[in-house]
Amino acid sequence: MKISGYFSEFSLGEVFRFLEQGQKTGCLTLKSMDESHTLSFLPPVAEHYLFFRYGQIVAATTTLNHQGLRQLIEQRGYLHPLTMQRVMNRYPGNVPLGVFLKSQAILDSQQIQLLFKQQVLTPIPYLFALKDGYFHFDAQHPLPFAEMTGLSASPQAITLAGLRLLRDWTPLLDKLPLADSTIVSLVNEPPSVQLGKIEWQVWEHIDGTTTIQEIAQRLNIAVLEVQKICFRLMVMGIVEEVVNISPLSPNNTTPDQEIDSDLSATPSTGLSSSFLNGIVAFLKATVNP
């Protein structure tokens, strides 16, 4: 089964949650529709591929030539290209390359972990910066064992870790919640993911009435830092921004404007209703391999 859409319709966070909650296996293609848009310190490529196994991310590449992990190994200086070629001549191809290299005592666990982080963790924050793009998920696409380290992680955990490590937030500034917006929780229980100290403090002040600026003042931290934390929680689907609109004077308010104002302050669920309606048939029809 296949499912496609545009970032203008569904956020990358929604797509990730759908794949993770549905325990999907396959290839997620993310394609930038803006040729002038480049992702900071990433190669200027138009497409990115994320591979899922039962809802967990197992690999990420920018091509489908099955050379990405091999090139990372060579770039990090773990193996000389000639040595790598001899190793690949013995590689059976039906197990993750990282598992094979570890079984042959060619790479150790720490090296495998570093490769996985560079391969998967590095591009994630910048993929959220794509403004005009297209996604396509193919549940029939075979897993690329030559690109796999043998490690996996949940999209939610990878996204949170990647955004925490992000140093240049310039590509994402226009996606941060506004300082005078309030943040509402979409879950009844505390987050299941492990939050940092400041993240927990921000979470504890989210009550649907306190603005981001007020939270920053109470915690004595920068407004921008609270905006970043709230954005991370929004991407994870556990909170939502409610933009505060200055009320109109009674004499100037029409019934239609009152309705619009009420709707603007109503939080939605973690997955938009349009997104759910668009994929309900796919959810019913798809059976995990």
Notes on the protein architecture:
- The protein is α+β, with helices and mostly antiparallel strands.
- The chain folds into two domains: 175 residues, no CATH class; 100 residues, Arc Repressor Mutant, subunit A (Orthogonal Bundle).
- 40% of the residues lie in helices and 13% in strands.
- The protein contains twelve helices and seven strands.
- Strands 1-5-2-3-4 form a five-stranded antiparallel beta sheet.
- Helix 9 packs across helix 10.
- It is elongated.
- The C terminus is likely disordered.
Instruction: Please tally the β strands and state the result.
Output: 7
Class by SSE composition? alpha+beta
**Beta-strand proportion:** 5-15%
Provide the helix percentage. 25-40%
Q: Radius of gyration from the CA trace?
A: 22 Å
DSSP helical segment count: 12
- Average pLDDT reading: 82
Summarize this, please?
40% of the residues lie in helices and 13% in strands. It has helices at 12-21, 68-75, 81-90, 97-103, 109-121, 124-127, 155-165, 197-204, 212-219, 223-235, 255-264, 273-285; strands at 2-6, 26-32, 47-53, 56-61, 133-138, 182-185, 239-242. Residues 36-43, 253-270 and 280-289 have low confidence and may be disordered.
